[in-house]
């Protein structure tokens, strides 16, 4: 497409005409009939997203108060402050063959690693990653865990000669499960609720390790879950294998969460014998935090349309599952009220979650003169094809 532009102080119009290079592609007129309207939407969005220092301080103070309340008693705040039962972290001396299973969101990963201690560190690793079929995110517990166990069994069969299991030992696996779980021991935990768009039936209130063990038995897989950890705890443990000073881990992915090392005498709700180290890891589940977070109309609309309105507000404002959808909703408003893409909102752009966070990242990283990546993504997502020339 070739584009010519004329402007007045208040109005700008883009006239879109076909070029030889674009023949055969859908012709969609892109017009900025009301720059003032689109500009005002963007200005309002910027104002609603603003985080001046007083706002940041208020958010930080509110989160601190919620953390303390969550440490005092279960249910004391939106932050669950879950006890992980991980009272010691890797020293770097660990050796042997270990498997890991990571169910962290829309992706599922299986990993095996041969550790060689401080001298050899990580000797060898192999992993396999699959996307969770969307229908399983809304299916039954048995369907989801059977899919996971089947994939894990196939992965274990492909174990190469680089990995060595001592004779007579059963394969052990650490289960990283990145959803709110009330742990009852190092290798058991009750699912409190699904997040990140999952709505699997028959799992809430059950021990997720038992769900996995039952599925592995159905697959004939001889493997034992030796530890259940949140992905933040797993990240902290993995980093500690290399660096003794690591005390905090943060996840920014499909969802978001953080964990940290806390003194046991600062946890009033911790009953019974204290750990010999005097410390334990706390899984904050900070995705549920909400007090004082600046929210735009697009954040509120997306939350209202979600499967868990009013929940996981912090997660919905910053994590990978939602950022693309927030941007799409802003574009739909600019298209409808400001005629950003012509007289009508493109049908493809009107589809919820059509614009994904990886699309936004790719557009942000496009520094080319013709913004080819931006144009390609907008064409694929919204059916808009154009070439950008500067407005005069």
Walk me through this protein's architecture.
This protein is an alpha+beta fold and 392 residues long. It contains twelve helices and 13 strands. It has helices at 35-49, 53-72, 117-120, 134-137, 141-157, 208-218, 231-240, 297-305, 313-318, 320-338, 357-364, 372-382; strands at 2-7, 12-17, 82-83, 95-103, 107-116, 122-131, 171-177, 181-185, 188-191, 223-229, 248-252, 256-263, 279-283. The protein has a five-stranded mixed beta sheet. Helix 1 packs antiparallel against helix 10, helix 5 (141-157) packs across helix 6 (208-218) and helix 10 (320-338) crosses helix 11. The model is unreliable at 1-34 (pLDDT under 50).
Tell me the layout of helices and strands.
Blueprint (H helix, E strand, L loop, with lengths): L1 E6 L4 E6 L17 H15 L3 H20 L9 E2 L11 E9 L3 E10 H4 L1 E10 L2 H4 L3 H17 L13 E7 L3 E5 L2 E4 L16 H11 L4 E7 L1 H10 L7 E5 L3 E8 L15 E5 L13 H9 L7 H6 L1 H19 L18 H8 L7 H11 L10
* Biggest sheet descriptor: 5 strands, mixed
Helix % is 25-40%
Order of helices and strands: EEHHEEEHEHHEEEHEHEEEHHHHH
Q: Regarding quaternary structure, how should these chains be classified?
A: single chain
Proportion of strand residues: 15-25%
Taking Cα atoms only, what radius of gyration do you get, to the nearest Å?
Answer: 25 Å
Enzyme class: transferase
Organism: Populus deltoides (Eastern poplar)
GO cellular component, one term: mitochondrion
GO molecular function: ATP binding; D-glucose binding; fructokinase activity; glucokinase activity
